[in-house]
Every structure is written in C-alpha cells, then in structure tokens.
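QA checklist item 7 of 12: single-chain prediction sanity check.
[x] sequence parsed
[x] length recorded as 127
[x] structure emitted
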Amino acid sequence: MENQKPPTPSSPPIPPQPTKPKEPWHAQKDEKDLIAILSYIGVLFVIPLLAGKDNAFVQFHAKQGLVLFIAEIGTSILLMIPVLGWLGAPILWIVWLVLSIMGIINVFNGEKKELPLTGQFSDKFNL
C-alpha cells in the first residue's frame, strides 16, 4: 500500500453566532398606535377616536373606521330591500371586511394610507 498520510485535523467548525431575537411587533409600537387597530372593528372606532385625540396617527385611522362603520350601517339598510339587498349586501359585507383587514395591516406597518373607496371621505370629518 501507498504511504498514506494521516488526516490533518481541519479547523473546528465555527459555531453559529447567537442572533438577537427580533422584538415582537407590539414592542415596537406605542400603546396608542395599537389602539388604532380598534378603528376597524365596527363601532369600536369610538375608542381610538376618544382615546387618541392628541395622536394624528390614531385619529387618521379612527376617521377611516368611522367611514367604514357608516358604510356598514348603509349595507344593513340595503339588506332590507328585497332581492336587490339580498344580492348586493353580502358582496358589500365582503368589501368592508377586506377594507378593514387592509386598515389593520396599515396600522401594523405604521402607515397612514387611505383605504380604497372609502378613504377619501375620512378627510371630511373634523373631530
């Protein structure tokens, strides 16, 4: 047999460096900003409207929640109309649900984005 060299010890593997855990999303936000989430849950828009008087971010989302709530009330009234309401209201409920989810995502991301369809009306309120 040939003259075999003993295996050279390779450098020991570098242990993975501990990574600093990410802070949870709620630790990065102000408490009042989190109240803005309530803006998109039906009549609960009143809580951020009253609790966040001095916070422009909260007021922005509370006004959008108010417009969505008015739209939801209008959809409830539409539901009382036979056939047209029965067909149209469920579609509108889905639209309002999607817009509410979009609003909540905007709050999580710390953005002041107007919602499609309803966002333009929130500027009309001076509360």
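[x] summary fact logged: The chain has one domain: 29-120.
[ ] second reviewer sign-off
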